[in-house]
Amino acid sequence: MRAGAASSPAATVTVETDGSWRNSMSVVGPFFLPVDTKHKLLTLTSLIAVVLQKLLNVLPPLVMKHAVDVISEHTSTIAASAAVSGNAVLSPCMSAHASTVTARRIMLACAAYLGLKVLIMVTSVVQNLSKQVVSFDAERRFSIAIFSHFQQLGISYLLSKHAGELTRIMNLGTESVTTILHQLVFFLAPTFLEALFV
Asked: Are 186 and 129 spatial neighbours (Cβ–Cβ below 8 Å)?
């Protein structure tokens, strides 16, 4: 074997694509971490929005449970009062006051429900926007690194390895970085945190 063969582009590609998960993640992993402060803040914002959205998704059913409990409590109070008095008709003052309080509590529960749903939508929008910016940055940095490496390869290597197919494969690789980032950082990590809390 010649001494210069180890530094040839073919040997470099063979070493980088040996198929091991550890080797692949050591090459791609640094692109998952944001490099500047802006993207670090956006990543943190997105993760906070994910956790906040997970917490907020629990609250609307609890609010509706409270509204149903208020209605059933009001119904049982009217039935109990009617049974005690032996009359199905309550005094107008007691009935109006109880109905007003019940209506106010139901309206507050419905307003809280709508407010929570709006807050969930806002956190979803914030999460998606910041997630997209972070993903595009990771994809951009990965694409620049891959294509600059591709341009440094020798012309004989490019002609023998069908450069068009390599370019298509590299495009798929850059898209996979975004998919991995979405799945690991923005889906799997919050789900793991949710499992820890439950």
From this structure: no
